[in-house]
């Protein structure tokens, strides 16, 4: 299994992630930011949906929207320090709302992927007929 270069790269990255993530996790838990990952993951998904809806690069739009929401969370947490947990829930809900508004783009993407898979499957059956 490790004779492939991509598996060797995946193993190295897995070890690096397993070393770095606990350091970040301890910092986030001690600063009471444990739910920020959930809020930013939903913001990232909303960014992908916005990118698909606008026919833009979904990775770049996810990066931009997640970064903006991260800065917004930090700014609101500094301004309203007594309600820091509530701010995360508000951002999470806002992200889900954006995702819901962009649901048509995601639906069209899923249909494209499904029909592409069906087309490829039919093409493979026609190219390589089963011997009976």
Question: How would you sum up this structure, described in words?
Answer:
83% of the residues lie in helices and 0% in strands. The protein has 132 residues and is mainly α. Helix 2 runs parallel beside helix 4 (84-101). The two termini are 34 Å apart.
Rg estimate, integer Å: 21 Å
What is the SS-derived class? mainly alpha
Number of strands: 0
Q: Helix share of residues?
A: over 70%
CA-to-CA gap between the ends? 34 Å
Strand content: under 5%
Report on the biggest sheet.
none
Low-confidence stretches: none
What string gives the helices and strands in order?
Answer: HHHHH
Total number of helical segments? 5
Mean pLDDT: 81
Q: Can you tell me the overall shape?
A: flat
Features of the shown structure:
132 residues
Concise structural overview:
The chain is mostly helical and 132 residues long. The chain has 5 helices and no strands. Helix 2 (36-53) packs across helix 3, helix 2 (36-53) packs parallel to helix 4 (84-101) and helix 2 (36-53) packs across helix 5 (103-127).
What is the element layout, followed by pairings?
Layout: H1 5-30, H2 36-53, H3 58-79, H4 84-101, H5 103-127
Helix pairs in contact: 2-3, 2-4, 2-5, 3-4
